[in-house]
Amino acid sequence: MTTGKTQLFIIATILLAATTTIFLPIIINTVSHPPHHHRNPPTNNSNNNNPPLDFPSNASQVLQSNGFNFIANLIHVSPDLFLSTPESTIFAIPDSAMSNLSIPPYLTIELVTYHISPTKLTFQDLFSKPLHTCFNTMFQQHKISITKQDAQNQLLEINNVLITNPNMFIHESLTIHGVNGPFASFNFHPQELDLPICNTHDQTQYPNNTIVNKLDYTKAEWKMVVKFLISSGYAPFAFWLNNLLDEIIQDHPDLRTMTVFVPPVIEQMSGTMMGKFVRAHIVPKKHSFKHLVTLQQGETMGTLCPGKDIEITGTVVNLSEELLLINRVEITSPDLLSSRSFVVHGIARSFAMDEAFKV
Question: For the segment 181-212, what is each residue's pLDDT rounded down to a tens digit?
Fold first, then answer.
Protein backbone atom coordinates (compact mmCIF):
# COMPACT_ATOMS: atom_id res chain seq x y z
CA MET A 1 0.00 0.00 0.00
CA THR A 2 1.32 3.43 -0.75
CA THR A 3 1.40 5.95 2.09
CA GLY A 4 -0.38 8.73 0.22
CA LYS A 5 -0.75 10.75 -2.95
CA THR A 6 2.19 12.69 -4.30
CA GLN A 7 2.23 16.41 -3.70
CA LEU A 8 1.86 17.10 -7.42
CA PHE A 9 -1.27 14.94 -7.62
CA ILE A 10 -2.81 16.72 -4.64
CA ILE A 11 -2.11 20.17 -6.08
CA ALA A 12 -3.52 19.14 -9.46
CA THR A 13 -6.61 17.75 -7.75
CA ILE A 14 -7.14 20.93 -5.74
CA LEU A 15 -6.90 23.00 -8.91
CA LEU A 16 -9.83 21.47 -10.75
CA ALA A 17 -11.53 23.34 -13.59
CA ALA A 18 -15.26 23.31 -12.87
CA THR A 19 -18.35 25.00 -14.19
CA THR A 20 -20.75 22.42 -12.72
CA THR A 21 -20.56 20.05 -9.77
CA ILE A 22 -18.29 17.76 -11.80
CA PHE A 23 -14.63 18.69 -11.39
CA LEU A 24 -12.00 17.60 -13.90
CA PRO A 25 -8.27 17.43 -13.08
CA ILE A 26 -6.07 19.81 -14.99
CA ILE A 27 -2.37 20.07 -15.70
CA ILE A 28 -1.30 23.56 -14.87
CA ASN A 29 1.92 24.06 -16.76
CA THR A 30 1.19 22.60 -20.18
CA VAL A 31 -0.03 25.83 -21.71
CA SER A 32 1.79 28.39 -19.59
CA HIS A 33 3.56 31.36 -21.16
CA PRO A 34 5.29 34.20 -19.33
CA PRO A 35 3.14 37.34 -19.47
CA HIS A 36 4.25 40.14 -21.74
CA HIS A 37 5.40 43.35 -20.15
CA HIS A 38 2.45 45.64 -19.36
CA ARG A 39 -0.05 44.03 -21.67
CA ASN A 40 -3.45 45.53 -20.85
CA PRO A 41 -6.51 43.53 -21.98
CA PRO A 42 -9.97 45.07 -21.87
CA THR A 43 -11.15 45.44 -18.31
CA ASN A 44 -14.43 44.17 -16.97
CA ASN A 45 -16.32 46.96 -15.23
CA SER A 46 -19.64 47.04 -13.44
CA ASN A 47 -21.54 49.46 -11.27
CA ASN A 48 -22.63 46.85 -8.73
CA ASN A 49 -21.20 46.89 -5.22
CA ASN A 50 -20.40 43.17 -5.21
CA PRO A 51 -18.47 40.97 -7.63
CA PRO A 52 -20.72 39.67 -10.44
CA LEU A 53 -22.29 36.25 -10.06
CA ASP A 54 -20.16 35.03 -12.97
CA PHE A 55 -16.96 36.47 -11.47
CA PRO A 56 -15.08 33.13 -11.65
CA SER A 57 -15.85 32.77 -15.35
CA ASN A 58 -15.10 36.38 -16.32
CA ALA A 59 -11.91 36.65 -14.29
CA SER A 60 -10.68 33.22 -15.35
CA GLN A 61 -11.09 34.04 -19.04
CA VAL A 62 -9.00 37.18 -18.67
CA LEU A 63 -6.37 35.37 -16.62
CA GLN A 64 -6.15 32.44 -19.04
CA SER A 65 -5.79 34.76 -22.02
CA ASN A 66 -2.74 36.29 -20.33
CA GLY A 67 -1.03 33.06 -19.27
CA PHE A 68 -2.21 32.86 -15.65
CA ASN A 69 -3.91 29.44 -15.90
CA PHE A 70 -2.96 28.33 -12.37
CA ILE A 71 -4.77 31.23 -10.67
CA ALA A 72 -7.61 31.10 -13.23
CA ASN A 73 -8.43 27.50 -12.34
CA LEU A 74 -8.05 28.12 -8.61
CA ILE A 75 -10.64 30.91 -8.88
CA HIS A 76 -12.95 28.42 -10.63
CA VAL A 77 -12.50 25.85 -7.86
CA SER A 78 -12.69 28.14 -4.82
CA PRO A 79 -13.92 31.69 -5.51
CA ASP A 80 -14.67 32.07 -1.77
CA LEU A 81 -10.94 32.09 -1.15
CA PHE A 82 -10.75 35.37 -3.09
CA LEU A 83 -14.07 36.92 -2.05
CA SER A 84 -14.20 36.57 1.75
CA THR A 85 -13.93 40.35 2.20
CA PRO A 86 -16.04 43.18 0.70
CA GLU A 87 -13.11 44.34 -1.44
CA SER A 88 -9.98 42.65 -2.69
CA THR A 89 -6.94 42.95 -4.89
CA ILE A 90 -5.45 39.80 -6.40
CA PHE A 91 -1.84 39.70 -7.52
CA ALA A 92 -1.78 36.76 -9.95
CA ILE A 93 1.37 34.64 -10.03
CA PRO A 94 2.28 33.44 -13.56
CA ASP A 95 2.30 29.76 -14.47
CA SER A 96 6.01 29.91 -15.27
CA ALA A 97 6.76 30.82 -11.65
CA MET A 98 4.30 28.33 -10.12
CA SER A 99 5.66 25.44 -12.19
CA ASN A 100 9.14 26.09 -10.77
CA LEU A 101 7.92 25.87 -7.18
CA SER A 102 7.97 22.44 -5.59
CA ILE A 103 6.04 23.07 -2.38
CA PRO A 104 3.41 21.20 -0.33
CA PRO A 105 -0.26 21.90 -1.18
CA TYR A 106 -0.96 23.76 2.06
CA LEU A 107 1.90 26.14 1.31
CA THR A 108 0.53 26.65 -2.20
CA ILE A 109 -2.72 27.94 -0.70
CA GLU A 110 -0.86 30.07 1.84
CA LEU A 111 1.27 31.52 -0.94
CA VAL A 112 -1.82 32.43 -2.97
CA THR A 113 -3.55 34.10 0.00
CA TYR A 114 -0.37 36.11 0.62
CA HIS A 115 -1.03 37.59 -2.85
CA ILE A 116 -4.56 38.77 -1.99
CA SER A 117 -5.16 42.08 -0.23
CA PRO A 118 -8.55 42.80 1.38
CA THR A 119 -8.57 46.27 -0.20
CA LYS A 120 -9.32 47.24 -3.79
CA LEU A 121 -6.16 48.81 -5.26
CA THR A 122 -5.99 49.76 -8.93
CA PHE A 123 -2.66 50.48 -10.57
CA GLN A 124 -3.41 54.19 -10.22
CA ASP A 125 -4.22 53.72 -6.51
CA LEU A 126 -0.86 52.04 -5.96
CA PHE A 127 0.97 54.90 -7.66
CA SER A 128 -0.85 57.41 -5.45
CA LYS A 129 0.55 55.79 -2.27
CA PRO A 130 3.98 56.67 -0.87
CA LEU A 131 6.91 54.35 -1.47
CA HIS A 132 7.16 51.61 1.22
CA THR A 133 3.43 51.78 2.00
CA CYS A 134 2.31 48.45 3.48
CA PHE A 135 -0.92 46.59 2.77
CA ASN A 136 -2.54 43.75 4.64
CA THR A 137 -2.95 40.39 2.92
CA MET A 138 -5.34 37.47 3.43
CA PHE A 139 -2.55 35.33 4.90
CA GLN A 140 -2.67 35.77 8.68
CA GLN A 141 -2.52 39.56 8.32
CA HIS A 142 1.01 39.51 6.91
CA LYS A 143 1.79 42.61 4.87
CA ILE A 144 3.22 43.40 1.47
CA SER A 145 4.72 46.74 0.49
CA ILE A 146 5.45 49.01 -2.46
CA THR A 147 9.20 48.73 -2.99
CA LYS A 148 9.65 50.63 -6.27
CA GLN A 149 7.75 53.36 -8.13
CA ASP A 150 8.72 54.80 -11.51
CA ALA A 151 5.90 57.04 -12.67
CA GLN A 152 7.68 58.13 -15.84
CA ASN A 153 8.03 54.55 -17.12
CA GLN A 154 4.91 53.29 -15.33
CA LEU A 155 6.85 50.66 -13.38
CA LEU A 156 5.82 49.51 -9.93
CA GLU A 157 7.09 46.69 -7.73
CA ILE A 158 5.53 44.95 -4.74
CA ASN A 159 8.03 43.14 -2.49
CA ASN A 160 10.60 43.77 -5.26
CA VAL A 161 8.41 41.94 -7.79
CA LEU A 162 7.32 43.82 -10.93
CA ILE A 163 3.63 44.25 -11.77
CA THR A 164 3.63 43.13 -15.42
CA ASN A 165 -0.11 43.17 -16.15
CA PRO A 166 -1.68 46.10 -14.28
CA ASN A 167 -5.45 46.41 -14.09
CA MET A 168 -5.87 43.08 -15.85
CA PHE A 169 -9.40 42.75 -14.42
CA ILE A 170 -11.33 45.53 -12.69
CA HIS A 171 -14.70 45.48 -10.99
CA GLU A 172 -16.32 47.91 -8.57
CA SER A 173 -14.98 45.94 -5.58
CA LEU A 174 -12.13 43.91 -7.05
CA THR A 175 -8.92 44.34 -9.04
CA ILE A 176 -6.52 41.75 -10.49
CA HIS A 177 -2.93 42.55 -11.43
CA GLY A 178 -0.44 40.14 -12.97
CA VAL A 179 3.04 39.97 -11.46
CA ASN A 180 6.19 38.30 -12.79
CA GLY A 181 6.85 36.13 -9.74
CA PRO A 182 5.83 35.29 -6.16
CA PHE A 183 6.15 37.82 -3.33
CA ALA A 184 7.79 35.24 -1.06
CA SER A 185 10.44 32.53 -1.25
CA PHE A 186 10.32 29.02 0.16
CA ASN A 187 12.46 27.40 2.84
CA PHE A 188 12.75 23.62 2.58
CA HIS A 189 14.16 23.12 6.10
CA PRO A 190 11.80 23.74 7.78
CA GLN A 191 9.08 23.77 5.15
CA GLU A 192 7.69 27.29 5.37
CA LEU A 193 7.23 30.46 3.40
CA ASP A 194 9.93 33.08 3.87
CA LEU A 195 7.86 36.26 4.09
CA PRO A 196 9.67 39.59 3.77
CA ILE A 197 9.28 41.96 6.70
CA CYS A 198 7.29 45.00 5.67
CA ASN A 199 9.61 47.88 6.50
CA THR A 200 7.59 51.02 6.15
CA HIS A 201 8.03 54.70 6.77
CA ASP A 202 4.31 55.28 6.33
CA GLN A 203 1.85 52.96 8.03
CA THR A 204 -1.16 54.73 6.51
CA GLN A 205 -4.44 52.95 7.19
CA TYR A 206 -7.12 52.99 4.54
CA PRO A 207 -10.83 53.30 5.37
CA ASN A 208 -11.85 50.29 3.30
CA ASN A 209 -9.07 48.02 4.56
CA THR A 210 -10.81 45.03 6.15
CA ILE A 211 -8.85 42.62 8.31
CA VAL A 212 -9.68 39.09 7.24
CA ASN A 213 -11.57 37.09 9.83
CA LYS A 214 -9.82 33.89 10.84
CA LEU A 215 -13.17 32.10 10.66
CA ASP A 216 -13.46 33.13 6.99
CA TYR A 217 -10.08 31.56 6.27
CA THR A 218 -11.03 28.39 8.20
CA LYS A 219 -14.30 28.08 6.27
CA ALA A 220 -12.44 28.57 2.98
CA GLU A 221 -10.16 25.69 3.92
CA TRP A 222 -13.18 23.51 4.77
CA LYS A 223 -14.68 24.37 1.38
CA MET A 224 -11.47 23.27 -0.32
CA VAL A 225 -11.70 19.94 1.52
CA VAL A 226 -15.34 19.48 0.46
CA LYS A 227 -14.56 20.12 -3.20
CA PHE A 228 -11.55 17.83 -3.06
CA LEU A 229 -13.68 15.02 -1.59
CA ILE A 230 -16.32 15.45 -4.30
CA SER A 231 -13.69 15.11 -7.00
CA SER A 232 -12.03 12.12 -5.29
CA GLY A 233 -15.01 9.77 -4.98
CA TYR A 234 -16.26 10.74 -1.51
CA ALA A 235 -19.29 12.81 -2.56
CA PRO A 236 -21.81 11.40 0.02
CA PHE A 237 -19.63 12.35 2.98
CA ALA A 238 -18.71 15.67 1.32
CA PHE A 239 -22.40 16.53 0.89
CA TRP A 240 -23.20 16.12 4.57
CA LEU A 241 -19.96 17.77 5.69
CA ASN A 242 -20.80 20.80 3.56
CA ASN A 243 -24.28 21.00 5.14
CA LEU A 244 -22.74 20.95 8.62
CA LEU A 245 -19.89 23.42 8.08
CA ASP A 246 -21.58 26.42 9.67
CA GLU A 247 -22.61 24.38 12.73
CA ILE A 248 -19.14 22.88 13.15
CA ILE A 249 -17.42 26.27 12.85
CA GLN A 250 -19.92 27.84 15.26
CA ASP A 251 -19.60 25.01 17.80
CA HIS A 252 -15.80 24.89 17.54
CA PRO A 253 -14.57 28.46 16.87
CA ASP A 254 -11.07 27.62 18.14
CA LEU A 255 -10.70 24.55 15.96
CA ARG A 256 -7.44 25.01 14.06
CA THR A 257 -6.22 21.49 13.22
CA MET A 258 -8.14 18.30 12.52
CA THR A 259 -8.10 14.84 10.99
CA VAL A 260 -11.02 13.68 8.81
CA PHE A 261 -11.70 10.00 8.14
CA VAL A 262 -13.85 9.72 5.01
CA PRO A 263 -15.74 6.61 3.83
CA PRO A 264 -16.74 6.24 0.15
CA VAL A 265 -20.35 5.30 1.02
CA ILE A 266 -22.61 6.16 3.94
CA GLU A 267 -25.97 4.68 4.86
CA GLN A 268 -29.26 6.56 5.10
CA MET A 269 -30.06 8.10 8.49
CA SER A 270 -31.85 11.09 9.98
CA GLY A 271 -30.35 14.55 9.80
CA THR A 272 -29.71 14.66 13.55
CA MET A 273 -28.00 11.28 13.53
CA MET A 274 -26.05 12.24 10.40
CA GLY A 275 -24.69 15.28 12.22
CA LYS A 276 -23.36 13.03 15.00
CA PHE A 277 -22.11 10.53 12.44
CA VAL A 278 -20.04 13.10 10.49
CA ARG A 279 -18.62 14.64 13.66
CA ALA A 280 -17.64 11.16 14.88
CA HIS A 281 -15.37 10.90 11.83
CA ILE A 282 -13.51 14.14 12.63
CA VAL A 283 -10.73 14.31 15.23
CA PRO A 284 -9.86 17.81 16.51
CA LYS A 285 -6.15 17.30 16.02
CA LYS A 286 -4.02 16.70 12.96
CA HIS A 287 -2.70 13.11 12.72
CA SER A 288 -0.68 12.14 9.67
CA PHE A 289 -0.59 8.45 8.75
CA LYS A 290 3.07 8.36 9.78
CA HIS A 291 2.01 9.48 13.26
CA LEU A 292 -1.02 7.20 13.48
CA VAL A 293 1.03 4.05 12.88
CA THR A 294 3.17 4.92 15.91
CA LEU A 295 0.14 4.74 18.21
CA GLN A 296 -0.37 1.62 20.27
CA GLN A 297 -3.30 -0.72 19.76
CA GLY A 298 -6.08 0.27 22.13
CA GLU A 299 -5.25 4.00 22.12
CA THR A 300 -8.26 6.23 21.57
CA MET A 301 -8.83 9.64 20.01
CA GLY A 302 -11.66 12.02 20.83
CA THR A 303 -13.88 13.29 18.01
CA LEU A 304 -16.09 16.33 17.47
CA CYS A 305 -19.01 14.23 18.69
CA PRO A 306 -18.85 14.65 22.51
CA GLY A 307 -17.99 11.44 24.31
CA LYS A 308 -17.57 9.48 21.10
CA ASP A 309 -14.03 8.18 20.75
CA ILE A 310 -12.43 6.13 18.01
CA GLU A 311 -9.85 3.46 18.74
CA ILE A 312 -6.71 2.05 17.16
CA THR A 313 -7.72 -1.61 16.76
CA GLY A 314 -4.95 -3.00 14.57
CA THR A 315 -1.50 -2.07 13.27
CA VAL A 316 0.89 -4.03 11.06
CA VAL A 317 4.08 -2.35 9.93
CA ASN A 318 6.80 -4.11 7.91
CA LEU A 319 9.06 -3.36 4.98
CA SER A 320 6.37 -3.90 2.36
CA GLU A 321 3.12 -2.93 4.05
CA GLU A 322 1.67 -0.46 6.50
CA LEU A 323 -1.78 -1.46 7.70
CA LEU A 324 -3.79 0.53 10.20
CA LEU A 325 -7.25 -0.26 11.53
CA ILE A 326 -9.40 2.25 13.40
CA ASN A 327 -12.61 0.87 14.88
CA ARG A 328 -11.73 -2.27 12.84
CA VAL A 329 -11.87 -0.25 9.61
CA GLU A 330 -8.81 -0.07 7.38
CA ILE A 331 -7.31 3.24 6.25
CA THR A 332 -7.15 2.60 2.50
CA SER A 333 -6.00 6.03 1.28
CA PRO A 334 -3.73 7.58 3.91
CA ASP A 335 -2.84 11.26 3.68
CA LEU A 336 -5.34 11.71 0.86
CA LEU A 337 -5.17 15.47 1.37
CA SER A 338 -2.87 17.34 3.71
CA SER A 339 -2.57 21.00 4.63
CA ARG A 340 -1.17 22.86 7.59
CA SER A 341 -4.57 22.54 9.31
CA PHE A 342 -6.11 19.38 7.83
CA VAL A 343 -5.26 15.83 7.01
CA VAL A 344 -7.80 13.60 5.26
CA HIS A 345 -7.61 9.79 5.28
CA GLY A 346 -9.80 7.59 3.12
CA ILE A 347 -11.23 4.56 4.94
CA ALA A 348 -12.73 1.35 3.58
CA ARG A 349 -16.18 1.92 5.08
CA SER A 350 -17.92 4.03 7.70
CA PHE A 351 -17.19 3.49 11.36
CA ALA A 352 -19.91 1.17 12.63
CA MET A 353 -22.66 2.80 14.65
CA ASP A 354 -21.97 0.64 17.69
CA GLU A 355 -18.32 1.64 17.53
CA ALA A 356 -18.36 5.30 16.59
CA PHE A 357 -21.35 6.17 18.75
CA LYS A 358 -20.64 4.27 21.91
CA VAL A 359 -20.41 6.42 25.00
Answer: 998 876 544 445 555 656 544 333 333 333 33
Residue environment code for 198-210, b if the CB has 16+ CB neighbours within 10 A, otherwise e: bebeeeeeeeebb
Instruction: Give the burial string for 138-159 (b: 16+ CB within 10 Å, else e).
Output: bbeebbbbbbebeeeeeebbbb
CA pair distance 121, 168, nearest whole angstrom: 12
Question: Which residues on neighbouring strands pair with residue 283, listed in sequence order?
Answer: 259
Question: 287 with 301: CB under 8 angstroms?
Answer: yes
Cβ within 8 Å of residue 248, ≥6 positions away: 222, 255, 279, 282, 304
Predicted TM-score (pTM) above 0.85: no
Q: CA 147, CA 179: separation in Å to the nearest integer?
A: 14
pLDDT of 13 over the 60 cut: no
Look at residue 154 and give its three-state secondary structure: coil
Neighbours of 227 (CB within 10 A): 20
Which letter does DSSP use for residue 327 in this model? T
* Cβ-based neighbours of 89, under 8 Å, separated by 6 or more: 116, 117, 119, 120, 121, 135, 174, 175, 176, 177
Angle value at C-alpha 193, between 110 and 29, nearest 5 degrees: 65
